[in-house]
Amino acid sequence: MTLAYWMILVAALVPYIGAAYAKFSGGGGKTYDNRAPRANVESLPPQRQRAYWAQLNGFEAFPPFAAGVIVAHLAGAPQSWIDALAITFVVLRVIYTLLYIHDKPTARSLVWGAAFACVVGLFVIAAAR
Question: Which residues, other chains included, contact 71 with Cβ-Cβ below 8 Å and sequence gap of 6+?
Answer without folding.
Answer: 122, 123, 126
